Task: inverse folding
């Protein structure tokens, strides 16, 4: 069994990133897997990949690919012609599998991508069709996107050309076209179909056309969607659904593709006018290297680990946009998946959606050594939330590697111990609880809920006790001129010449906790320029809106391009810290 990654060039000149899970002998038709549109792209990513791996283990090849504007493909979601490009990409991916394998493929679409399948069904012969929790009306999908924006308080102004789409923006022209689409198909050949849907979904009108064509149509109700479509850290792989899918997909007969047609071009890398991208593997770590065609001399390469358990594209495609923006400034970067996350190797049931662990720092060291072999003069580690924790710990654990700096974005905690919750370490939970209590003090309803709920008294009491003990310990350190672990670690990093940059969105719970733990040492390091402390206005934790993402990217590009040396005023402070 092998797996390959490549970029597929479509007839409309889009470059589509694809991951092909091949098998030695095709025992059943290969499967084309089309990811959801919108924020569910990231939420369901682990489940899609796990399905592909289990299909491969069962002897069935499959292709996962990124639609234009998603993941590592070319294009932007804000472009007005996305619907046509998505449908063309789906046709191209289906054609590639058919020509490459010599077998007619099965098409599987999840959620709103089911709305993209009618053109493929009408123009290509398929060995089978799967709609997995399908949206049958585009109007319902766009309504749900608007509801997500309302809940996130990230609606764009009415005169904006696009909607926020829960962090995955969509041009209003594309949204209008999708609103007019209904799932309706009338194949001219028998097409066996499996539909897995929610128990509430009683009627699926499109099935009438499939049944009229003579194909066998099976329906199965499942309630796993609500667990699968959560954010990556909390998403659960619907193993019962996957078992059902593998059994059905494996039972479909092989159909040889007798068409004689030129294969679509595909390359192991993609090159734009300013940079190239290629996939790299370093032991158990997968990454995408973005390399400028005109690199800045001696500029450190930037390594970007996962944000939480989401894969290397980053929340709202942040890591992709950042990497390509850095390349325009001459800076190379690698957006990577720590072991068992994203596209990194997964073995059997050894799944993980752990945002925090003790292996991420060594995974980063593995990639650092790999990029040094590729010619990187040094590296900068850049991480958001749990990625900031992994970057910080990697810099501490591997002083032998040439790390030029750290950029830590919206860090909630920089420490994790065995026994801590892997999704929310105790330090992050304390910071979050502090922020929530601080916001509630001015809310009369919150006080009323507290007075009428004895259980809340106990929770508040426990929190106050923890905070009191932490404050007493901090004061004891201050009086005894003893550095906190965070202060000692900052001194260690800065004494090695690292530039440490903290970047926060407003009202981030970790901002106050880290500033307090850093104490006077952090303040002095900020004054000497070894540490910077910045804030990106009008942004939430994962920079959901396009405007906030662009402000962050612009800020980071300015920081990382400016490689001004630390002034001589830091030398005396280094001596003072070492003596302390």
Result:
């Amino acid at each position: 069994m092998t797996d390959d990654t490549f970029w597929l060039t479509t007839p409309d000149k889009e470059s589509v990133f694809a991951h092909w899970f091949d098998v030695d002998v095709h025992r059943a038709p290969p499967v084309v897997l089309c990811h959801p549109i919108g924020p569910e792209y990231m939420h369901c990513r682990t489940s899609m990949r796990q399905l592909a791996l289990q299909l491969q283990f069962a002897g069935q090849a499959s292709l996962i690919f990124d639609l234009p504007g998603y993941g590592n493909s070319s294009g932007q979601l804000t472009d007005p012609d996305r619907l046509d490009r998505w449908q063309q990409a789906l046709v191209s991916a289906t054609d590639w599998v058919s020509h490459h394998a010599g077998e007619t493929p099965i098409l599987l679409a999840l959620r709103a991508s089911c709305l993209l399948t009618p053109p493929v069904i009408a123009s290509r012969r398929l060995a089978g069709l799967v709609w997995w929790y399908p949206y049958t009306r585009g109007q319902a999908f766009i309504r749900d996107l608007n509801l997500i924006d309302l809940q996130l308080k990230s609606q764009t102004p009415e005169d904006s050309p696009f909607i926020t789409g829960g962090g995955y923006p969509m041009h209003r022209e594309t949204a209008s076209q999708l609103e007019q689409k209904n799932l309706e198909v009338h194949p001219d050949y028998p097409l066996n179909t499996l539909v897995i849907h929610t128990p509430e979904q009683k009627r699926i009108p499109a099935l009438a056309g499939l049944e009229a064509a003579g194909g066998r149509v099976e329906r199965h109700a499942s309630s796993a969607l609500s667990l699968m479509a959560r954010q990556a850290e909390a998403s659960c792989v619907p193993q019962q659904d996957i078992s059902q899918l593998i059994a059905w997909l494996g039972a479909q007969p092989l159909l040889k593709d007798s068409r004689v047609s030129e294969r679509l071009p595909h390359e192991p890398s993609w090159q734009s006018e300013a940079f190239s991208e290629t996939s790299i593997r370093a032991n158990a770590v997968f990454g995408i290297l973005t390399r400028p065609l005109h690199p800045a001399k001696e500029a450190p390469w930037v390594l970007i680990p996962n944000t939480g358990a989401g894969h290397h594209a980053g929340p709202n495609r942040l890591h992709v946009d950042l990497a390509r923006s850095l390349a325009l400034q001459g800076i190379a970067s690698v957006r990577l998946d720590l072991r068992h996350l994203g596209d990194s190797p997964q073995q059997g049931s050894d799944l993980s959606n752990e945002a925090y662990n003790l292996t991420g720092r060594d995974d980063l060291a593995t990639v650092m050594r790999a990029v040094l072999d590729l010619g990187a003069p040094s590296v900068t580690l850049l991480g958001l939330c749990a990625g900031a924790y992994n970057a910080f710990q990697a810099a501490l654990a591997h002083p032998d590697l040439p790390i030029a700096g750290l950029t830590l974005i919206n860090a909630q905690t920089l420490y994790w111990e065995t026994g801590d919750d892997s999704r929310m370490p105790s330090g992050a939970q304390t910071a979050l609880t502090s922020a929530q209590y601080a916001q509630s003090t001015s809310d009369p309803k919150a006080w009323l809920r507290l007075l009428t709920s004895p259980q809340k008294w106990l929770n508040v009491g426990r929190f106050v006790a923890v905070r009191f003990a932490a404050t007493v310990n901090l004061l004891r350190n201050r009086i005894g001129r003893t550095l906190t672990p965070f202060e000692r670690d900052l001194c260690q990093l800065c004494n090695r010449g690292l530039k440490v940059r903290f970047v926060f969105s407003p009202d981030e719970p970790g901002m106050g906790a880290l500033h307090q733990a850093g104490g006077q040492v952090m303040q002095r390091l900020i004054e000497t320029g070894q540490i910077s402390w910045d804030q990106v206005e009008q942004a939430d934790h994962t920079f959901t809106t396009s405007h906030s993402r662009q402000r962050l990217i612009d800020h980071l590009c300015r920081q990382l391009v400016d490689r001004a040396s630390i002034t001589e005023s830091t030398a005396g402070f280094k001596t003072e810290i070492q003596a302390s």
Q: What stands out?
A: The first strand starts at residue 2 and ends at 9. Residues 564-580 have pLDDT under 50 and may be disordered.
